[in-house]
Write a sequence for this structure.
């Protein structure tokens, strides 16, 4: 913890990569924890375009469940600590794999949302995209005014990231003096590849997680515990 504090004090440019674990203490389940299961389905079997085209109503029912969870969630002390760190840093980028808006609600500003936003919807026919914050969409699957099928504005497994999104994340990771990796199992690519990019460009990399992950052997420090407790301690 003390080493990490020193690296933070010295760093001109800080980047943070967050995953579902950051929102777990707000009551939004991770994909790989047992609370992430909905009915008998594994998230990996629903968050794909194949699953959506096979049964759009089922995938939308799952999104309604997730929308309801996110709508009732509040940022936790980990989200607030990261917003505080941004205010105190010269250059700061928060790269998140999360599709909820809890970082923004906590006050984070320079946020790169790698995997999109659970409140966005996109028409597959006219490609129009807009925000719809209803926790539960009644008519499933929802349709656009043009008659086209709507899909959630998120990136599913096997899909490419949105235009420009990867460039911003990659630049921030390459330029960072310190990369904090928080609450991610670091198995989803290309997001997990940011760790190696930052390390090769000379950054110190610090991981905060409840358990060791796929990247723990490549990093400079591992802080083991809930990020809602460790982040406020680190940044205080
Ligand atoms: P993951 O489910 O694969 O892994 C979660 C990680 O968080 C695990 O390593 C776990 O040990 C750790 N963790 C759990 N609680 C923690 C806590 N309190 N403090 C610190 N660490 C904790 O999640 P992922 O790596 O983000 O990847 C899965 C995909 O899931 C992402 O693409 C993301 O889009 C999506 N997802 C997003 C949300 C969300 O928006 N809140 C929720 C679930 C899944």
């Amino acid at each position: 913890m003390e080493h990490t504090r020193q690296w933070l004090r010295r760093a001109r440019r800080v980047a943070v990569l967050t995953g579902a674990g950051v929102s777990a203490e707000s009551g939004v389940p991770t994909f790989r924890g047992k609370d992430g299961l909905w009915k008998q389905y594994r998230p990996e079997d629903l968050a794909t375009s194949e699953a959506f085209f096979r049964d759009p109503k089922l995938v939308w029912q799952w999104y309604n469940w997730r929308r309801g969870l996110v709508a009732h969630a509040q940022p936790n002390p980990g989200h607030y600590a990261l917003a505080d760190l941004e205010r105190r840093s010269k250059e700061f980028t928060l790269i998140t794999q999360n599709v909820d808006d809890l970082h923004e609600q906590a006050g984070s500003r320079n946020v790169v949302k790698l995997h999109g936003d659970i409140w966005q919807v996109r028409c597959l026919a006219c490609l129009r995209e807009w925000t719809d914050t209803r926790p539960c969409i009644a008519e499933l699957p929802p349709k656009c005014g043009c008659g086209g099928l709507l899909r959630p504005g998120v990136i599913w497994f096997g899909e490419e990231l949105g235009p420009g999104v990867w460039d911003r994340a990659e630049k921030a990771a390459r330029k960072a003096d310190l990369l904090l990796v928080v609450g991610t199992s670091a198995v989803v690519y290309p997001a997990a590849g940011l760790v190696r990019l930052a390390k090769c460009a000379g950054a110190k990399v610090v991981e905060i997680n409840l358990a060791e992950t796929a990247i723990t052997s490549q990093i400079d420090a591992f802080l083991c515990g809930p990020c809602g407790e460790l982040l406020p301690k680190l940044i205080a």
Q: What stands out?
A: The longest helix spans residues 56-71. The radius of gyration is 18 Å. Residues 2-27+74-115+161-235 form a domain with the Rossmann fold fold (CATH 3.40.50.1220). Residues 19-21, 23-25, 28, 30-32, 97-100, 115, 183-185, 188, 208-211, 213, 226-228 surround nicotinamide-adenine-dinucleotide (CB under 6 Å).
